[in-house]
Design a protein that fits this description.
Distance between the termini: 22 Å
Number of helices: 4
Strand order of the largest sheet: 3-6-10-9-5-4-7
Oligomer: single chain
Number of strands: 13
Strand content: 25-35%
Number of domains: 2
């Protein structure tokens, strides 16, 4: 079988198509048709899988706490270093600084371009953190740097997080919105902070692809059922 995993609907329909195709074609033609069906299914899965983004930190209000979640890749091309560093999760909105995770890291200097702040709040340490150290230290645009985990290989995925107990966006002094800092034009030569925002929903292209795939599978089944010899007692399901 060429279909597995989360896309059970499309895979199930492909299996539904197999039986009439198998009964009508000789083995070589059957193999060719099923290969095309597999290719179509694989194309849909690839097209509907979102691409990996740059490193993004999201700040969300969860109950009485503010939760920071970081995930993505960082391309260190264009930055200068390395220098040893260490730290723990914290936030300084007025200076444009945010740290997620904790531990030892490696510091790379800019130049980095972006907003000088993402609010008016001063320094606040997180109560807990998970994952390795990653930080954007913009320092109001005076000196800017990125810290990645010790031994980090440029372009590989990282995930981490932090929790600010008993805090809100207002108490932290952050302004909801999306902020981006860049040090080049590459796909991962940027650092994004999303405060209280949701990812852009699917524009409809995935549904169009799914609809086209379903229509194609139904057409193939109908075509081969109409060609296949049927006894008078046979009923099409």
């Amino acid at each position: 079988m060429c279909y597995r995993g989360n896309y059970q609907l499309l895979g199930g329909l492909a299996a539904w198509v197999e039986e009439p195709v198998r009964s009508y074609l000789n083995p070589m033609k059957y193999k060719h048709i099923i290969t095309l069906l597999c290719a179509a299914t694989a194309s849909f899965l690839i097209a509907s899988t979102p691409a990996q983004a740059n490193f993004i930190v999201t700040l969300q209000q969860v109950g009485s706490n503010v939760v920071a979640t970081g995930s993505g890749a960082i391309d260190l091309t264009g930055l200068h270093g390395p220098s040893p560093a260490n730290g723990a999760s914290a936030i300084v909105p007025v200076a444009g600084d945010i740290v997620t995770g904790s531990g030892n890291g490696t510091l790379y200097l800019g130049p980095i371009s972006g907003p000088t702040s993402f609010g008016t709040g001063g320094p606040t340490d997180a109560n807990s953190s998970t994952g390795p150290l990653v930080s954007l230290l913009y320092n109001g645009g005076i000196t800017s740097s990125i810290i990645v985990p010790s031994g980090y290989v440029s372009g590989t995925l990282i995930s981490n997080g932090a929790i600010y107990n008993g805090q809100s966006f207002a108490s932290l002094g952050v302004t909801p919105g999306t902020y981006e800092w860049t040090w080049g034009t590459g796909a991962n030569q940027n650092f994004t902070l999303e405060i209280g925002t949701s990812r852009v929903p699917d524009s409809g292209s995935t549904m169009v692809l799914l609809g086209a795939s379903l229509f194609g599978l139904i057409f193939v089944r109908h075509f081969f059922f109409s060609k296949r010899p049927r006894s008078s007692s046979h009923q099409i399901p």
